[in-house]
């Protein structure tokens, strides 16, 4: 491609909304664009191209992205060649209607087409440089076999000690509130060896902690690969990664309760690198609400999973997802959820106020809950969460916890890291300690963070 192409139109800014899967997809797009000769910049004001990687899980996330795209059109007044693209879940969900709502939009790319973004931008920019007709807008939403295998490259930031690794795409569940099966398609798994090779490369670059990603990560490979010695493909993958030199910590998200069979529960006992932290979506603590949500477990089964994990690892940390105000959720139903939430004593939670997602079964359900009642229920759970998270953190005062030093904190001259239980930690350190596992003597705690001093005996500082 001619140098002139990139002398004036090579700067790309990517804005990401939503989950870790979206962050990983954006990183892949950035890596692919860099390989093609583009420059990834830090702000929209320095960019010739802005790509919005979007989320459809909640209406608020879509509205933020649409608002940002509308705001960006003012850049076209100063630079008619400025390009605006929308990628990801909202692109897949809304498709061509985005062009009606946002006439200045140039590119809409779905969830199985991230790897096509460099080609689309090349063609547009070539045309604007007189190497073809003026480009029309591009819509690319089709399914593509093997697309799950294209999310494999990393930018390789200096000093990076943590990395996300996408192991699958899609979801075969049919939760009544969720748009993800429509936006991400059916489950598709990457081969185990390809994932292992990716993690080996990350370890060689200095990464110490990896987080495996999937819409339902515990469903990995269940239709593609055999069970071996009573172990699911997902547990087999965990065991392979456990053996990789340089990797010190393993996490994963987001699982489903039905994925926690005995082999996975025992993995927390047997795999030293698998951190004693579980994100286990509950959604509701009332069986009536769970049935309405089309969640295939009961609150009793969920509690059995929690108890089995705590029996295996007594110090286990738990986070969860909860939806308040699901259609038909009565005060008594919510009180059941609140009681279970309080009883389990979650260390962290994502608490969502139900919002209608067009095209889902819950959209047309009767007895929609008023917004003010959703707000009230949300606050009840937030207060319970604060109580339990504060108690758990205060219980760590006076103890010593291992932290991975991640880098400078956002404020002040401190450094930040996380314990194995995903407790945010702030402490004094220096750049030479980034990437090292160090003991932290905790002397103070809030509901969100622990503070203390590093125990540096025997550590290369």
Please describe what this structure looks like.
The protein has 461 residues and is of the alpha/beta class. It folds into 3 domains: 138 residues, Rossmann fold (3-Layer(aba) Sandwich), CATH 3.40.50; 248 residues, pyruvate-formate lyase- activating enzyme (Alpha-Beta Horseshoe); 56 residues, OB fold (Dihydrolipoamide Acetyltransferase, E2P), CATH 2.40.50.140. It is 36% helix and 21% strand. It contains 14 helices and 19 strands. Strands 2-1-3-4-5-6 form a 6-stranded parallel sheet, with helices on both faces. It has a 5-stranded mixed β-barrel with strand order 15-16-17-19-18. Strands 7-10-11 form a 3-stranded parallel sheet, with helices on both faces. A hairpin with a 3-residue loop joins strand 18 and strand 19. Helix 8 runs parallel beside helix 9. The N terminus is likely disordered.
Compact description:
The chain is an alpha/beta fold and 461 residues long. The chain has helices at 3-8, 20-35, 59-78, 89-94, 97-101, 117-131, 180-184, 192-204, 233-242, 262-270, 287-293, 299-312, 331-344, 371-394; strands at residues 11-16, 39-40, 49-54, 83-88, 107-109, 138-140, 162-166, 168-169, 188-189, 209-213, 249-253, 277-279, 317-324, 348-353, 400-408, 415-419, 424-427, 437-445, 449-455. The strands form 5 sheets. Strands 2-1-3-4-5-6 form a 6-stranded parallel beta sheet, sandwiched between helices. It has a 5-stranded mixed beta barrel with strand order 15-16-17-19-18.
